[in-house]
Amino acid sequence: MGDRKRYPSDVTDEQWELIGPFLQAWKAKRVAVSVSGQPGDYDVREIVNAIFYQNRTGCQWAYLPHDLPPKSATYYYFALWRDDGTDLVIHDLLRCQAREKVGRREDPSAVVLDTQSIRAANHIPATTTGKDAAKKVSGRKRGLAVDALGLIIAVVVTAASVVARSATNATRLTTDNAIGIRLLDKVVAHTPTVSRSWVDAGFKQDLALHGAVLGIDVEVVKRSDTKPGFVPIRKRWIVEQVNGTLMLHRRFAREYESRPESSVSRTLWASTANIVRRLTGTSTPSWRHR
Question: What's residue 39's pLDDT?
Answer without folding.
Answer: 46
